[in-house]
Amino acid sequence: MIGIAVIGYGYWGPNLVRNIAEVPGARLLYVCDLRKERLAAVKARYPSVEITDDFEQVLRDPSVDAIAIATPVSTHFKLAMKAMMAGKHVFVEKPMAWTVDEARRMVDEAARRRLILAVDHTFVHTGAVRKMREIVENGLGDVYYYDSVRVNLGLFQHDVSVVWDLAVHDLSIMDYVLPEKPVAVSATGMSHVVGEPENIAYLNLFFESKLIAHIHVNWLAPVKVRRTLIGGSSKMIVYDDLEPSEKIKIYDKGITLNGNPQRNGEKVYQMLVGYRTGDMYAPHLDMTEALSRELSQFVDCVEQNQQPIADGHAGLRVVRILEAATQSLAQRGRLIELEQTRRIA
Amino acid sequence: MIGIAVIGYGYWGPNLVRNIAEVPGARLLYVCDLRKERLAAVKARYPSVEITDDFEQVLRDPSVDAIAIATPVSTHFKLAMKAMMAGKHVFVEKPMAWTVDEARRMVDEAARRRLILAVDHTFVHTGAVRKMREIVENGLGDVYYYDSVRVNLGLFQHDVSVVWDLAVHDLSIMDYVLPEKPVAVSATGMSHVVGEPENIAYLNLFFESKLIAHIHVNWLAPVKVRRTLIGGSSKMIVYDDLEPSEKIKIYDKGITLNGNPQRNGEKVYQMLVGYRTGDMYAPHLDMTEALSRELSQFVDCVEQNQQPIADGHAGLRVVRILEAATQSLAQRGRLIELEQTRRIA
Amino acid sequence: MIGIAVIGYGYWGPNLVRNIAEVPGARLLYVCDLRKERLAAVKARYPSVEITDDFEQVLRDPSVDAIAIATPVSTHFKLAMKAMMAGKHVFVEKPMAWTVDEARRMVDEAARRRLILAVDHTFVHTGAVRKMREIVENGLGDVYYYDSVRVNLGLFQHDVSVVWDLAVHDLSIMDYVLPEKPVAVSATGMSHVVGEPENIAYLNLFFESKLIAHIHVNWLAPVKVRRTLIGGSSKMIVYDDLEPSEKIKIYDKGITLNGNPQRNGEKVYQMLVGYRTGDMYAPHLDMTEALSRELSQFVDCVEQNQQPIADGHAGLRVVRILEAATQSLAQRGRLIELEQTRRIA
Amino acid sequence: MIGIAVIGYGYWGPNLVRNIAEVPGARLLYVCDLRKERLAAVKARYPSVEITDDFEQVLRDPSVDAIAIATPVSTHFKLAMKAMMAGKHVFVEKPMAWTVDEARRMVDEAARRRLILAVDHTFVHTGAVRKMREIVENGLGDVYYYDSVRVNLGLFQHDVSVVWDLAVHDLSIMDYVLPEKPVAVSATGMSHVVGEPENIAYLNLFFESKLIAHIHVNWLAPVKVRRTLIGGSSKMIVYDDLEPSEKIKIYDKGITLNGNPQRNGEKVYQMLVGYRTGDMYAPHLDMTEALSRELSQFVDCVEQNQQPIADGHAGLRVVRILEAATQSLAQRGRLIELEQTRRIA
């Protein structure tokens, strides 16, 4: 049995607590929060769990094997480092840190102490995203583009731009699904509230191949959209996360190139591009709650000393793109190279 | 009665011919094309119309008041200039020319000779786009963003990128609907067919105000999408051109700012943004064929010596953005200033 | 404060308990169920609530003012009658009883003892259905038809047909929204599982006016549909309960009659019907949880001795239609008159 | 070459003429109509076709092998009988006749003279309907139900109810797709215009097996719907004719029966029904214009003396159901047996 403490019982913490309480092999030992009324809420629902506002107490308890951190991003680094220094494995919310430097030090610390450092890239544990990876690996052909739209009305954040709040999901999905890592990023956007971070943004991601990726995020949209298109040379995917069951549609569509372009009588080149339109199919998806699956895997990784699917390196790659995108945003889309990330990955 | 000759009976020419044949006040005199079989097709359907492969013959005929040009873009400049030099008014397909220089010379020529120069920005004559302009002018509040997606499978062009083929529609709509003209543009994209122009592209348009615009065009998408979001401080619009009747939806949604942000107990700033969600409505739209309305207005402009809604200046502004976007595309999104366009407009 | 006991903690009971625990003016005193594990589930979540498997104990407690019954339909009559004989007000799940006779005796008992008898027609407390009633009363004109489709895959019931399980929702909505009560019903359907009740059914409801109503229910559909059309002489409504926010769309559409039909040359009458197509609008809806609102009103009714919106008479009218539809189903759609219901209503 | 004359150039006639002009093996010889302006329209577009208002002239011409009738229903019988008596093959619009008696005499006449009598059940020649038949025959398992909704605003007819105008499409599709013919029909509906036929109607069709069919047609709906559900024991189909490309979706969904129902502790039977949810797929469909395919087959049938897919018997079966439905409508849904039809089929 792996003893786990959850730090932070705000927006996401209750989901961690609920799932950890039911994951086989895990024992939920503590919930730690600075707010008394949040701790009272834990006690009312989980009478047998220890509550505390003292993080150090948790660290001192040798029955705690792992710490799950669900506090504001700005505190991730400090809490995770302390936890690892106390010999605890860490499961940390995304984005894993405020800066690349912090993220890198967390990765190094985990490596040095041979501890598991997992980042909560929840989406990569959904049936839909796992199915996409399967198709991208086997059947899509060359990957041409990845285009995601993630827009809705609210919730405006004060401390981070919409890129850190929404695009982080797409970046974690891309990191898992695509066969390559980006080499450069540019981003444009705008804040429509004086003194606040961008509430609309567009990210471009460049790769060494002909793959191109684009993410549109917006807190100020009249309708909610969660739609990703992935184009390949053999198949194309539409992933609509708002569809209740047919979230993934795979289209046997594309172009075929018919030899060399030729001249016609009007001296205008004509492309000999053919269009292929075949069946569409929507595979049945595993509908297990992603967080349950993810925490179960975290417990397995701790027990068997294996790397999780979204480990510190994945978290670092995502933070690097967020940091670069933020730089680019400030310069109306200047291209930022990501070479160092590749070395790390 | 305004005597009109149509030059070019390829893809779009037949639509011009069909509509001119029915517009009150217009007389369709000639159809001119270099291909004999196209001229035969005209004759079979419009036995009373003169057919010819000799453009000069058309220019010499004094009963021809105006020339409608529906030939490939590369020929627009030469044909339009000859027509104007012969004293003919011109109605030219979009984009109006290959380069800013050509477009500017066309505008100058029309001004010098006091001829009408209309550019076929068909969309600005649809009920949907006219309704959008009405709402943007009166009810939307400050315009925050304009976001358009125009993607489908095919038709790949050989001579122009997807920007010239598809984004030109969005640029002409924005030129008509938005209260400001862009001051800078950047564009990214990719060609997935060796030696051919970009088949996927993303354009960013910057303005002097906090307005931001973005266009996504793609010839290689598994589904057809024609969707524009316009966000304003008072209302937001969704324009879906594939909807059979409810193409425009107006949302009484947005944010309200409640005074100054304040500190809370956790030392984290909290934005006091409120979310407003009211009724949506889809106004009944005039479903008159846009091209019929447009040609009817062109005839009126010629008769009454008035400027058309989409005149040479509008056409030039669009070409300037296309040219700048093409430069930017070649440099992975470098920002290109558009200052001179503003002076012209 | 109104003391309330909930009887039955199966599928729906937990929703009653959760809401009663939060309704101002109510005190949740008991949860009663025959299954020990269900009572344990209550205790874990609501430590201060009394749990018991002895209904008589609840009845004897004078601090219990009202009983909420969420047990299988077959037990509603017996439990509700006992409760009323013990002087308790009653809130009972729908359908309120197995037979018209039972329902009528419940209504009579409540009247005799001046007790509140509320039936849980949850939908009539939703923002969407309340908005529909408002429009039907004011703006729809003459009501022409009411057409509902409520289909999905599962859950097959063993003891009741799909009519009692799904059409009961539509009947309760119609009872609330329409200006008239039906005078006759016919129903057709089929069971595709040997020995089991109908899993697909179609109900026709006839009225004294030209209003016609129809309900399609199906447990064996490949897609989930919850869509109602209401046609009126001035407006038409589409109610799609699966839409996340725009559940109600109001169309300013219809026909206009232009004088007398006339003969034309072919001796065929031509109707002079005109078609009116105006704006559509989707009003913002109150999204308060219907059950919370409903229980709050029940508490008010008990305190102020007022009739609830869905009282025993409404419940009886619905049961009468269900009973008649069941008779008709057994006779391949024979028309069954509902005259006695009208008298009661 | 088969010489063909088209009788009637109103709403549908131009489609026949356009297609016949292009079908290999056919020669369009005459278009006959009583209205001079319609004949002029033919001449303008098809200068080489003979136009006439004299049906007898057409009949006398021995180069005319077949007559295509696109006149009002009330005239089908007389025109078709005259044509067959003159030895001409017949292609007649649906419904093929006003009464079962007329339809039967047409069938008999064709049989006696060994002439081809084809009925224009256009939908059975679409890629979508042909695909449905293929799946129903091979893969759907036992057919449980067929449910169609065909509603929109307009066009109100004066001489026939909505059943003859819209349900005729569904009946012709069902006749082609389903493995059984109906044995009884009932119909309910309403007219909302004084003195006019029903503008809304619901048809129930009963079969010898457990198959049940239902059709909802309405001229007074706020939205256009063309949706058919077909449920089978192995697969289920959704056919949405308004979808631009994915008109047919095949769901690998259904129920599985797990042995005998059993009692549980609460003495309530529980069904052991399981729900199966697998992939969905949308096969690529042949998008050839149905009428072109149909007329091509008619020409082949005439040349090779073969029966068309929709022959006089199919037309008669559809008319029999329309006639019975009309009787049932007048009696608020009384069940009408269709036994004689089965004998004919």
From TrEMBL, chains A, B, C, D:
GO terms for molecular function: nucleotide binding. It comes from the Bacteria. Residues 3-121 form the Gfo/Idh/MocA-like oxidoreductase N-terminal domain. Residues 135-333 form the Gfo/Idh/MocA-like oxidoreductase C-terminal domain. PANTHER family: BILIVERDIN REDUCTASE A, GFO_IDH_MOCA-LIKE OXIDOREDUCTASE N-TERMINAL DOMAIN-CONTAINING PROTEIN. This is Putative dehydrogenase.
